[in-house]
Design a protein that fits this description.
The protein has about 425 residues and is an alpha/beta fold. Helices cover about 40% and strands about 15% of the residues.
């Protein structure tokens, strides 16, 4: 296999893979090759152990008790918030809001920010490559409130033309919401440049970072992002928990998204005074163990080194791109110059679902379909793609297995 001579980045892959028990699982009699990391990533033992430890020894509610368990877990949960703050280089821990995930974070802004700062006749700008989670909340708000949804087109390569962005950022634009990394194309958008274009016209920016945080270092202060959100489950942490970063000035000016226990200072039947950020946006009992598990996942990534992860995944992407491009009839959808470790492709005359089914029978997990980006599929004129999305625990040998399995699938289907 030519893959043996490719790897140069500094990662101890054998040690890393030992930390992910599911990678030992057999599917169809073969060792699992998990290439569906864009949908959800696998969890290392330290994260799994942290969840078990919480239920074994710490289970209690936060912020509401004077007994030891409650105080102990409150401290642990708030330390998790600080871990996220440091990981994103946010100015304050109060700028970190725990949510249910990226979708919930975007919905929070679509409700709270829009209610205060976006009025009938205004415009919200998004891009053609957005996940449905960064389309539908804005579409719903626009339809209900007489606001226009404006869309930046993508180029055939799957990039954004900065001149298009500049021309569409107009006097009516009250928010620009875009993905940092496309879940379908793998395109890494030039977030800092896009934010600068918007800020030059005093337009705030929300970034969907669900696909960026697992692959690269993100510094929200350097980007000057107004809002940035991501999900734990795509970042080697638990499902059901996510993060919304927001600049303090915006969060203080926004009303609560949901209300109830934990969001208040005082309540009477005449008047309620809400808590300061972040608590005014965290109604009810949160996913406590999820927040703690996310912090452990971020610590795990940082221990490996975000730069090492990014460098290795770029090598993996380059190798996989070369190998897949050699297959007759295969077309890669999304050929941006800057990409994360995601490859979407179609094979002439074959349906993506048929390919995915045959790959699964060979123990290889990929994603098929529109990937919650139907407008993007319409642009490329395809019903869907096969998507192989990589993580730092994947190997060059697994790429070889994917390619071999594709040749077998093509032979069976033609």
């Amino acid at each position: 296999m030519e893959s043996q001579a490719i790897h140069t980045a500094t990662l101890d892959l054998s040690k890393i893979r030992e930390d992910f028990p599911i990678l030992l699982r057999k599917v169809g009699g073969k060792t699992l090759v998990y290439l569906d990391n864009g949908a959800t990533s696998q969890k290392p033992k330290p994260v799994i152990d942290a969840l078990v430890h919480y239920y074994d020894f710490q289970n209690s509610n936060i912020h509401r008790g004077i007994h030891k368990l409650s105080q102990e877990i409150t401290i642990a949960y708030e330390k998790a918030r600080e871990t996220v703050q440091k990981h994103l280089n946010a100015a304050k821990a109060e700028e970190i809001i725990f949510t249910k995930g990226t979708t919930d974070s975007i919905c929070l802004i679509a409700n709270s920010f829009s209610k205060t700062f976006i009025k009938p006749g205004d415009e919200i700008l998004i891009t053609e490559m957005e996940h449905h989670s960064n389309i539908l909340p804005w579409q719903m708000y626009c339809e209900e409130n007489g606001v226009s949804l404006v869309v930046v087109p993508v180029t055939p390569e799957g990039e954004l033309n900065l001149q298009d962005v500049k021309s569409l950022l107009g006097p009516k634009t009250k928010l620009f919401a875009f993905t940092h990394v496309s879940n379908t194309l793998g395109t890494i958008n030039p977030a800092k440049e896009l934010i600068a274009l918007a800020h030059a016209k005093n337009i705030p920016v929300l970034i969907d970072g669900a696909q960026a945080i697992p692959h690269m270092k993100v510094d929200v202060q350097d980007l000057d992002a107004d809002f940035y959100c991501f999900s734990a489950h795509k970042t080697f942490g638990p499902t059901g928990v996510g993060i919304l970063y927001g600049k303090e000035k915006w969060l203080n000016a926004m009303p609560p998204y949901q209300v109830g226990g934990g969001t208040i200072k005082t309540v009477s039947f005449k008047k309620t005074v809400y808590a300061e950020v972040p608590l005014k946006f965290e109604a009810g009992t949160p996913h406590i163990e999820g927040g703690i598990g996310l912090a452990v996942a971020l610590d795990y990534m940082n221990a490996i080194g975000l730069d090492h992860i990014a460098a290795y995944e770029q090598e993996l992407l380059a190798y996989a791109t070369k190998k897949l491009s050699a297959i007759d009839g295969l077309r890669i959808i999304g050929t941006a110059k800057e990409k994360a470790a995601v490859l979407s492709f179609v094979i002439e005359g074959l349906h993506p679902m048929d390919i995915g089914t045959l790959l699964d029978q060979q123990g290889i997990a990929v994603r098929t379909g529109h990937h919650c980006t139907q407008p993007l599929m319409d642009y490329y004129g395809v019903p869907g793609t096969v998507r192989a999305s990589f993580a730092f625990y994947n190997t060059f040998e697994e790429v070889d297995k994917l390619v071999d399995a594709l040749y077998k699938a093509i032979k069976m289907l033609t």
